[in-house]
Design brief:
Number of helices: 11
Strand order of the largest sheet: 1-2-3-5-7-10
Number of domains: 2
Structural class: alpha/beta
CATH superfamily of the largest domain: 2-enoyl-CoA Hydratase, Chain A, domain 1
CATH class of the largest domain: Alpha Beta
CATH architecture of the largest domain: Alpha-Beta Complex
Number of strands: 10
Shape: globular
CATH topology of the largest domain: 2-enoyl-CoA Hydratase, Chain A, domain 1
Distance between the termini: 23 Å
């Protein structure tokens, strides 16, 4: 991976990658360059066999406060329609590439997740939140549609249409306990346990059958648009392929030997 990111990125020996947004002085606000780098990184990770799972977090007291007001809004106020559309399409591609990445993504939400930061957290597969974290899909509060970066697609599937409408129409901040109760986050933990918990989950996933996990994420994504009959056929085809995979044979051999399987992702 290129070292020229405007955020921190590392991969451990187990194949767990950690991406840390690292502009704590502006609550990890995202610039135009960071958007482009995230978009391209999520796409590149599709082809990096050394990465098995990804954790996204923020430095300091925020996860991500959204787009940088001076670095983005200030630059775009006098731009033409094409420039604005190029920008909004780029932010959408960031989310698209997260959802198309066939590897588990865990958001370790250590603090405020607002605007684009809230959508990035929602686009992850799993979310661990600090008890001090909060979420705000605040686009409507700045005179923009709440349907930004896929928020109107993602949120109803996480929290239902009614709660999604509340989050996007009002743009109010919700605390971690409320987010957990609504289904927006998977776990709420103490502040010092957010990243360790996320890394522990990512480590478990990295040790798992990566081909099977990739197929599971694909099915979760594609079956959102299917009726039951189509979904059942999709799952039948996927499962038939995986029943012939090497990892399934590894499981069977380990079961017979009363040992733990060591999956190879094939």
């Amino acid at each position: 991976m290129s070292p020229s990111f405007d955020f921190d990125f590392s991969v451990d020996q187990a194949g767990v990658a950690t991406l840390t947004l690292n502009r704590p002085e502006v609550l990890n606000a995202i610039t135009l360059d960071i958007y482009a780098q995230l978009r391209d990184l999520f796409e590149a990770l599709r082809y990096d066999d050394g990465v098995k799972a990804l954790v996204i977090t923020g430095a300091g007291r925020a996860f991500c406060s959204g787009g940088d007001v001076n670095g983005i809004i200030g630059q775009l106020l006098d731009a033409d329609v094409k420039t604005h559309l190029d920008f909004t399409r780029m932010t959408g591609m960031t989310i698209r590439n997260m959802r198309l990445l066939d590897k588990p993504i865990i958001a370790a939400v250590n603090g405020l997740a607002a605007g684009a930061g809230a959508v990035i957290a929602a686009a992850a597969d799993l979310r661990i939140a600090s008890r001090e974290a909060s979420f705000a899909f605040l686009f409507s509060k700045v005179g923009l549609t709440g349907a930004d970066m896929g928020a109107a697609y993602l949120l109803p599937k996480l929290v239902g249409l009614g709660r999604a409408s509340e989050l996007l129409l009002f743009g109010d901040r919700v605390d971690a306990e409320t987010a957990e109760r609504w289904g927006l986050v998977n776990r709420v933990v103490e502040p010092d346990q957010v990243l360790p918990t996320a890394l522990q989950w990512a480590g478990r996933l990295a040790e798992g059958p990566s081909l099977a996990l990739a197929m599971t994420k694909r099915r979760l994504q594609t079956e959102l648009h299917m009726d039951l009959v189509a979904a059942l056929e999709s799952e039948a085809e996927a499962q038939a392929l995986l029943m012939m995979a090497e990892d399934h044979r590894i499981f069977h051999a380990a079961f017979q030997a009363k040992a733990s399987p060591r999956f190879i992702g094939r």
